[in-house]
Structures
1.
Amino acid sequence: METESLVETLEAAGLSPYQAEAYVALLELGTASATDVAEASGVPAPRIYDVLRTLEEREYIETYEAGSLQARAHSPSVVLEDLRRRADRLEAAAEEVEQRWEQPELEAGGASIVTRFRTVIERAEAFIEEASHQILLSTTTANLRRLAPALRDATDRGVSVRVSVHTDDANERPDPTLFEDICMEARHRPLPAPFVALADRRQASFAHHPDFYDRYGVLVNDRTHTYVFYWYFLTTLWEPWKSVYDASEPGLPIEHLDVRHLVRDLRELGWQNAPIRLRVEGYETDTGEECTVEGTVVDVRVPFASEADTGFELAGQVTVDLDVDGEHVSVGGWGAIVEDVEGTRLTIVDAPIE
């Protein structure tokens, strides 16, 4: 580093211009009188004594009398420690600035646009760590491995996790062991896809596929906006693709991702001909309070005569009616308004299964 650059760096580290000039001059002179330091550094002679005294107070140099005031630089250990401490603080400040710019705190009902995928996946990891009900994830195998510890912890605490893995190569099939202990079900989409992470129907973390020309990410902490990402996940990243891993045990209980999936199973089980008992975890639509109800299915209301009319019950109101200890309770899916309960986890606990 040239002398001028060293002086500028010392100024950035907290020395005044005169202090930096005098200290650098002393490093080159070794030991010198105050007059010689002033001459070598360009510090005005009337100011040199105050400058040297301040440097001595900071333990950069020491002074002594030998006919005239003499000065010499201390062992650089104190200076080096000071500079390194300041460098650490600057590095920490740089990281904090980057984090605050890239990862704005999401308030309830908020959404943010970010420019780096690292921010998107870090926020997704935080969403997963905080989730208590449900996680839906669309990702590559590489990013799935990164998120695996958080997903495993979520599964261990009873969160329902479903993963859609996408690959660029249609012939590349993910190893089923990749999903062990981290999700309930996994599906494979043999096409590039965005990264999507949804937690508890409230938080969303989204980023385009890396090859997409317009690269940005979206972070959401809002049920309404997350609902849009949910439908994208369901219709494009989940429903059309085959399962490559299923951790559910044969028989009962049978847990469902959505009320529309539940209706499909209820048809197959012939709910009209035999009692089917359903446990619903979700929210009361009039209060927003969490609730759990369990009862017998007494009716299924869908907008079309059969699933063949739509391929899947994607449009219109889908409702399952329960008899809960003699009381009628209607159950809808995500965003339910007219039903009594918005179901987040729908589990068939008793049914005539051979």
2.
Amino acid sequence: MTGVAPTQLRIPYVIARAEEIAPQPLTFVRRPLGGLRLAYADERRGDRVNGVLRVRVLNNRRGAPQWRKLNTLRQWRCMVKLLCQVCGQAATDPAIGRTPWIMTDSAFRELPEDPTGGLTSAPPTCWACIPEALATCPQLRISSTVCTVARAEPAAVLADMFTPGPGHGALHTGEHNVEISLKDEVSIRRALATQLIVQVHDLQPAPLEFPLTDTDTVAS
């Protein structure tokens, strides 16, 4: 849900706000078994998830919406708990036991080894919010496919990359939105995750009775 005009759509749950920026006291520390890894100088519970350091943000939903940015905490929560990226409520349809999801070319990638699944960095969207999202989000007008998925699991992250600097400092390499598998233990040591990527399984077309507009498409 990026690039949405403020006058057209309520502020989606996952959108970052101006007053949610938090200090990032980054450093490199030596691991018990050798080698360096990126860390916070005052690392706390919740900073490291799935083995990767996560960017610190507040979760107060205060300040002007940053329409092209997602709040890392809320995006992560939507992905893990399958919450709607617009309203923040449970997205899974209990009647069918599946989760509705809008897939786009920019946020979904097929996997050769999984013909009915793939990777996505966009959270699900509940049935109630899909019509509003499709009608008002410019990005979804370019490419959008309404599907349902059976399940999703953490698979990778989008991250900024760092390298050790003088005095155990951390220097940004200039690399943004680098996709790193959670299995890539080497790269994860230098990564500051900004978004969680999940692998969705058993991707199917949205139910035919779901009301679509003229500009929407359904997976085939």
3.
Amino acid sequence: MNQTQTGPPLVRRAGEPDTDELARMLTGLTELSRYFRFQTAIGSPPRSALLLRMLCPAGAAFVATRGPAIVGHAMWAWAPGEATAELAAVIAEDDQRRGLGIRMLSIAAADAIAAGATHFLFVVSAANERSLRMVRRRWPDATVDRDGALLSFVAPARLPDQPEERADVVHEQTGCLECGEVPAAGELRPMDDSVPAV
């Protein structure tokens, strides 16, 4: 574990004041991580228009912080299709494969369900094997379409660790954030599946 990782990150809603720290986190990603998340070059530092779309989407955005530093970002935004929310997340290099991405996706998914989403959309590079495994494992009933190097998965809206949406679980995931920050998890551990790089 990196010595700066003293405890689990805190997750909270994101906003414009997070622009500089999010830019710092994105700049610290490897080229491959940036490509898997954005499917294109984003610049270094990333353009302010991109950062604003990530922090203030047509849905909601969340950041995981350790001290003042942002170590993760997740969001959902309305996508084409009836009540379809696109989910996406990106995690700082030192915090990848430890469960933070799944935790953040769960929070974003719960918030999207609470807002009325009935389906989720994930757009994943065909080369991103860890994210493909994660989507297939956690949303096994998703349908998939291919467009060149991208795979688009559409799944019924439910939390990644629940067989169906349950109001009490959705409330637990979203209600805690109304009061501010929540721990990302009791214990983060190495994981085989990573965040969907959408």
